[in-house]
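Researcher: Please generate the 3D structure of the following complex. Treat every line as part of one assembly.
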Amino acid sequence: MFSIQKIFISPTILTNGVIMRIVFLGPPGSGKGTQAQVLSQKLHIPQISTGDLLREGVDQNTAIGQKAKEYMEKGGLVPDSIVIELVRERIKDENSFILDGFPRTITQAQQLNRLLSRMNMPLDCVINIDIPLEPLIERLSGRLTCKSCNAIYHKTYNPPQKEGICDVCGGELYQRSDDTEAAITHRFETYKAQTEPLISFYSSKNILITIDGTQSIDDIAQKIEQEVTQYQRS
Ligand code: AP5
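Model: Done. Output below.
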C-alpha cells in the first residue's frame, strides 16, 4: 500500500533540487494534495496548499481564518483578494514551488501570472487531474488527514499503518469538517463553475498536462513524474 514515506523513487528521472514552478488542478478529491506531496518529496521543493494554509488560519483563529471559515465550511471559495494575498506572502522568498489548489478562478490565475512575471519566475507546467465526479464522494468520505503535517490517507485506498496515527510524524488523523455531503456537493458545483475554465486557460498557454486520475496513487505518481520531466528547464 502507498505511503509518502515509502514511495518508490525511480532511478531519478527528475533531478532533486530542481527549480520548477508547478500548479495542480482538479476537482475536490481528485488527488491534488496526495500527488503534490509525492512530487514535493521527489523534487525537494515545497508544496503550498491554499486549503492547508486557510485551515491553519481557521485553527489558529487568525483574521484570515475568521474571514475564511464560513466559506470553507459551506464548500464555497474564499474571496480572491484574501487567497491571492496569502499566496503572494507565502511564495515571496521561494524560487520553486508546487501550488496545490491555487489558482482556482480566472482572476486568481491572471493575478498569479502578473505576480510571477514581475518576479521573472514563469510557471513551468500545470497538472490537471482528470476524473469523473462519481468516485470522488467515496474518496472524500474516507479521507483522513494528519493534524500535524497534513499527510493524506484513505481508510481503504491508503490506510495508515496504525489506526488514527500518521505514519510520517505520529500525529493524530482527523476527518475534515468540509467533507460532509452538503459541502462536497457545493465544492463540486463551485469547481465546475469557477475552476474548470482554468483548463482552457492553461491549455492555451501550452503548459497543461492532463493525467487520468482514475488509476492507482502509485501509477498516477509515475505518470506525473514522466510528464513533468519534459517541462524541466535545464
Ligand atoms: P482544499 O483543501 O484545496 O480542498 P479541495 O480542492 O476540495 O480538494 P481536496 O483537498 O478535497 O482534494 P484533493 O484533490 O487534494 O484530494 P486528496 O489528495 O486529499 O480547499 C478546501 C477549501 O478551502 C475550499 O473548498 C475553499 O473554501 C478554500 N480554498 C482553498 N483554496 C482556495 C482558493 N485558491 N481560492 C478560494 N478558496 C480556496 O485525496 C482525497 C482522498 O482520496 C484521500 O483520502 C486520498 O487518500 C484518496 N486518493 C487520492 N488519490 C487516489 C487514487 N488515485 N485512488 C484512490 N484514492 C485516492
